[in-house]
Amino acid sequence: MKAYIPGEHYVSLSLSGTACALNCEFCSRQYLRSMVPAITPESLEKVMRHLYQRGARGFLLSGGFTREGYLMIREGHLHAVARFRNEFDVVVSMHSGLMPREMLDIAWESGVDFIDFEVPPSNEYLKRVKGLAGKTVDDYLSKLDEILSYSKDWGVPHLILDSIAAEPEDELRIMQEISDRGPRLFVALVEIRPSPRNDKDRVLSTLRAARSMFREISLGCMRSPRLKKELDEEVIRNNLVDRITNPPKQLVRKHKLPIVWACCSIPDSKEHLFPSCEWVNGEPRGKCV
Fold first, then answer.
1. How many alpha carbons fall within 13 Å on the CB side of residue 229?
2. Cα–Cα distance for residue pair 276/274, rounded to 1 Å
3. Rounded-to-integer distance, Cα 197 and Cα 109, Å
4. E strand or H helix at 138, and its extent?
5. In whole angstroms, how large is the CA radius of gyration of the chain?
6. Is the preceding omega at residue 194 within 30 degrees of 0, hence cis?
């Protein structure tokens, strides 16, 4: 198992600033405020150059979404990515949502390395949490098929666990649908909410089931700090995932987890671009916590 820590070396960029046509319960645009704004294609290229000089080697294209459920992005943003990638060896990923095929074509041609693609756990989740009552889980599975048609490695499906708008059987059914498509990596997220408190046992049970479905599993960024203290120890001790994002520092030291300072979705072939930490005879070597 490896720990992945994005931070300064893998930076989330908002192509919309704080604008978003949706108003998801778990976000309410708060996540957008934590991203680096890069609203115009010109500012995107300028920001990436500046961050590269400061040590960034990975960039997530993210931001607000449209009422149709896809990223607010212009062709010019992707042309800026292509120019930048022609000069620098970096990793560029994207939160696409239900992006139209023509824009996916441009993203593929521009050198976007992979797409972090969230599949909803239920239709009720789309209605209650995302405000996308006109969309269905099948719409997302069809879009995942479209993304994977470029390359089986291009799409990295994410699934929200322990949602107030889904049942455990919904999660298992959707995981099986995703597994049948054979992605290189599956990323589990845990819904963040003020109440009710997350059901740790439900999350652990779902992760145990995922173990038999996927080649490689990551526990991604989204889970509350309160849940981390209880969940991560059991996940690590029972080897329920292959990758874990931002685990508590004391657990990294206790279990001597190797660290890659990048997004947990990156392919193995790109890890050499980022600082790392290994444990040699019980002692840390490299950039460690």
1. 2
2. 6
3. 43
4. helix 137-150
5. 18
6. no
CA distance 77 to 246: 29
Rounded to an integer, the average pLDDT of 165-186 is 97
Q: Tokens 């993203």 appear where?
A: 107
DSSP states along 7-20: GGGEEEEETTTT--
* 4-13: burial string, b at 16+ Cβ within 10 Å, e else: bbbeebbbbb
Q: Report the alpha-carbon distance of residue 32 to residue 48 in Å, rounded.
A: 17
Q: What is the pLDDT of residues 243-269, one digit of tens each?
A: 999 999 999 999 999 999 999 999 999
| Distance of alpha carbon 285 from alpha carbon 279, whole angstroms | 6
Phi, psi of 86 (to 5 degrees): -70, -20
Residue 278: strand, helix, or coil? strand
What pTM did the predictor assign?
Answer: 0.95
pLDDT tens for each residue of 26-73: 665 667 888 999 999 999 999 999 999 999 999 999 999 999 999 999
pLDDT at 26: 61
Q: How many helices (H) and strands (E) does the chain have?
A: 10, 13
Domain ranges across the chain? 6-244
Structure confidence by residue, pLDDT tens digits, 110-158 = 999 999 999 999 999 999 999 899 999 999 999 999 999 999 999 999 9
Cα(3)–Cα(129) distance, integer angstroms: 29
Domain 6-244 has CATH 3.20.20.70: yes
Please report, as a single letter, which amino acid is at residue 181: R
